[in-house]
Design a protein that fits this description.
191 residues; alpha+beta; D-amino Acid Aminotransferase, Chain A, domain 1; D-amino Acid Aminotransferase, Chain A, domain 2; 2 domains; five-stranded mixed β-sheet; four-stranded antiparallel β-sheet; globular
Length: 191
Amino acid sequence: MIYLESIQVSNGEFCNLSLHIDRMQRTIGKVLPLNLVVPEIYCTGIAKCRILYNEQRIIEIGYQHYTLPKIKTLRILEAPALAYNYKWADRSALNALMMQRGTCDDILITQNGYVTDTSFCNIVFESKEGLFTPTTALLQGTKRQLLLNKGVIKQRAISSHNLVEYDKAYLINAMIDLSDKICIEIESIYP
């Protein structure tokens, strides 16, 4: 099995590196030696460090410049059999779901009616009570964990039926923070 870790590099500095290393260790049950050096071309602005690895070794480390995606609509798709508890490099199951999104920008995956994640992000819902992320997330993302640790967001069971209790949703992942405002109005989440 090949796993993937994506780490944000901001002006040459790795963001939340300890959470990424912890997740890699939980994934394979041991620590792999990481020799991370940001090439000079990626030391200004935001870049993505992409690490491919397996149980034995680091397979590849690459860097690329990063621009924020434009996501304004989500299609709800029920996928009861989908498992993505590890960040696998093979995204074929997620890609197959994406083919069903119709004219929407991305998908909102549900299992047994409960919201999990989008195709590439954890999700945070905003209401007058605060910011909430589903307890049923498929992948325990590093940004999600950081925001939970800081008390910025709380976990809550969120079903597709009670989305109307929220005003908007934010996408978050290692490359996208709440402050980036990749935001979807609840009316733009379609069945």
